[in-house]
Design goal:
17-stranded mixed beta sheet; alpha/beta; three-stranded parallel beta sheet
């Protein structure tokens, strides 16, 4: 039976699921769209009718360096900027008569010189089609710059005015955006202006906001529909964050938080702040926040923070984290607790005990160690040690590539199931660690240096959970050769 005949026997629902899986989700690049998704439309009419709404449901506009560009996609290929050109699939989407089903607008640029001009060009492209793009709900913008090419000077008043104008014009062309995602760098003042302008334009209707760099906002508050919020902060933008209705949030990620003052930007009914729907919380703190002896604790709101439905917590270990844990209520058990150490070490615990006694112990541990004295294993020695090994169903430790492993180390981590070491590590160091890892079932270390200066990779996984000790034995045998 030929593949075409076999496919014809499948129900439309099942075939649609298969084609959606083959096409991937809408979070892809234009190259992926061109190479993986677009060819599916040319197979037959049935496939085109089933997968067409998905494939033609996203617009791409990309300002790329000319040497990497593929002009076959681009009726608007002449971007008018030296060494760059604009590529887009707008013409293909319109020709496919899928205008009403377009849900995503993806804008990417490699040129940091004139962001407002790019936004203005996108607006003209969309407006020239004599159609309304009111079906677009997701706007993604990626600033893919060479850091050395960015102009870090402050923006002039003319640049600020133009950025505000192009943001207003784009929001009129695509007025129903409820999901806004921006990736890039805050070193470009114009990126900050354009992004902040767009967030302000859509603030009253956003359900999803994700920005990877600090932005200054003028809106007094976000929509009560906002369920996903991910922001990178600094001292100024933290104070100007619009008010957020805490009970609506399901995902919250805050980076570079300076202290307890940030929680004044969240509200619910009454003096306490109840994050009654929040499932995932990720928070990291500025390097100078919550230092011993400062007054960071005084900046918290007078009420209590409540996280009754929290399932996943990712938090960086520092004095400011201790203040948060001591001033908030949490469930007694977390599905995932991810603890980031001070020097690129991350412990991930599954079904972790997180009741009052566990949090008190964590706070005591944080207070007892000055951040400057902490080493790579500081976090792991507490969470994976004999005293706390039974507080989680599964434990993993990831040592990042920038960490420094002690030359001679012996550990006692009886509950550790997975160990991932991305930094370079000596075979002698691993040999010293293995006797203290009786429950190890996964060991990955791509850069193991042996005495003869040879470098090898270890990637071991137990075939059955009932025999994890074999991993340590196998690794010992390999390292001792």
């Amino acid at each position: 039976m030929s593949p075409a005949t076999a496919a014809a026997l499948l129900s439309p629902e099942l075939l649609t699921r298969i084609l959606r899986f083959a096409a991937g989700d809408s979070d892809c690049s234009m190259a992926e769209w061109r190479d993986l998704q677009l060819p599916l439309l040319s197979v037959c009419r049935q496939w085109r009718s089933l997968i067409g709404p998905h494939v033609l449901g996203q617009l791409f506009v990309s300002l790329e360096a000319s040497q990497y560009a593929d002009s076959t996609l681009a009726p608007e290929a002449d971007g008018g900027v030296e060494d760059t050109q604009i590529l887009t699939n707008i013409g293909i989407v319109v020709a496919g008569n899928r205008h009403a089903g377009v849900k995503v607008l993806d804008i990417r640029t490699e040129d940091p010189t004139d962001i407002s001009a790019l936004v203005e060009r996108v607006t003209l492209m969309l407006g020239a089609r004599a159609m309304e793009w009111h079906s677009i709900e997701t706007l993604r913008i990626s600033f893919l710059f060479d850091e050395l090419a960015i102009d870090t000077r402050s923006a002039s008043a003319d640049v600020e005015a133009r950025a505000a104008q192009v943001c207003a014009e784009l929001s009129q062309i695509v007025p129903n955006v409820t999901c806004l995602e921006v990736m890039g760098t805050s070193r470009s003042a114009e990126c900050v202006l354009v992004t902040g302008g767009l967030v302000d334009m859509y603030a009253q209707q956003l359900a999803h906001l994700d920005v990877s760099f600090p932005i200054t906002l003028a809106s007094p508050e976000f929509s009560r529909r906002l369920g996903h919020l991910a922001l990178e902060l600094d001292g100024d933008t933290e104070q100007q964050l619009p008010q957020v209705y805490a009970p609506s949030l399901r995902y919250l990620s805050l980076g570079n938080v300076s202290g307890g003052a940030i929680w004044h930007r969240f509200h619910s009914s009454g003096q306490d702040v109840a994050f009654s729907s929040l499932k995932r919380l990720s928070i990291s703190f500025a390097s100078d926040s919550g230092r011993p002896g400062d007054a960071a604790d005084d900046h918290y709101p007078p009420g209590t923070l409540h996280f009754p439905e929290l399932e996943t917590l990712s938090v960086a270990m520092c004095p400011a984290a201790g203040s948060l844990l001591s001033r908030a209520t949490f469930p007694d058990t977390l599905r995932t607790l991810r603890v980031v150490g001070p020097l690129a070490g991350t412990v991930t615990l599954t079904n972790a005990a997180f009741g009052e006694s566990a949090r008190r112990a964590i706070c005591k541990h944080i207070a007892s160690r000055a951040a400057g004295k902490a080493d790579t294993l500081y976090t792991a020695n507490f969470f994976l040690g004999p005293a706390t090994a039974a507080t989680a169903a599964h434990a993993a430790f990831h040592i990042g590539g920038t960490a420094r492993m002690p030359a001679d180390v012996a550990v006692q981590w009886p509950g550790l199931a997975e160990l991932h070491i991305d930094t370079r590590v000596c075979a002698e160091t691993l040999l010293a660690m293995l006797p203290g890892l009786p429950a190890l079932s996964v060991l990955r270390a791509p850069d193991v240096v042996f005495a003869d200066a040879a470098m090898r990779s270890l990637d071991l996984r137990a075939s059955h959970k009932s025999c994890p000790g074999k991993i340590a034995a196998a690794a010992t045998a390999m390292l001792a050769r």
